[in-house]
Amino acid sequence: MGGSASTMAYSNEDAIRTEMVELDEKWKKVVEGRDYYDQSSFFKENIPNEVTNLTTMFNETGLNTVFTHSRKVVLDPGSGTYNSAMLYRSSQEDPDIPIFDTGDHLVLHPLGEPGRDLGNSDNRITHLMIVPTGESVPLCLNEMLPGTQVEVNDLEKRIETLKQAYTNMKNNVPLSACGKKVVDKADSLGVSHETGIRDFMGTMIMSLTPEFKADRPGYKLKDKDGTEYSGDESKLRSYINTHFSNTNLKCSIQPPWENSQFLSHIHGFIVDTPIGDLPEMYRDIEIILKVKKERITDLDVSEAEEEEPLTRTVTNGGGLSRTMTTGVR
Question: Which of 43, 168, 189, 313 is deepest in the core (most CB within 10 A)?
Fold first, then answer.
């Protein structure tokens, strides 16, 4: 799967729907025989928060049928710390470049080579990403997999939070309005809470040392000509101010066959239209949310006794029901 996706698949609702149907069938096999259906229960049972070799888990649980990119998926960290659970581990730690923190979710500017998949574009600097951080929020693997009502509600909240982060950047709101992790980072750098978040983003990037940038995942920020400029303060601040003033936001995810990390994360980029690798390697999260909402169905227990074990909820009438994602209509 994934090989047949056209270059227009980023926002092709029919194509995305078809891909999600196929993933639905794969997920049913992954959770077959388990007493749950939801991604979050699987995640908490199988994805560790410590550095360890994931090979046995990956193969025995059937996750290898979902995350299939042999180069991107890294299971054995060897003598280092990097593998496909690193994003999950790092989401529990103090972030290097936090942008907006709600307590349940964190929007950050990613490390590595942010915006790389936009290709030759100065808009690479606008790359933000949201991850779950709260103790009570769902932990999903990928939004194209089936989801329960709780997981879909959380997805909608994450999309809204990511959009708010971009609004904050556009308006350069004070750090005091950006949440605890941002304020804590400001305190560690001796920056006033009245500083604007756009200004502070530049300060955080400038604080990265050459040693940090050279390590893994490191940090490289390139312009449309491929020139690395993370150490050029004047250019850096100019690009932040210019490109975050735009409002053409695209929010998307990579499907599991293109993904390197097992923790679901939504990407944001400010671009007029999907460019670079976005049309082929990413999917519009708004369309995914629409399809997931359509697929959520409450099944009365009396009508679903022979169904696979599903997440149980209580209906408004007090009767026991099961909430699951059914096949795509």
Answer: 168
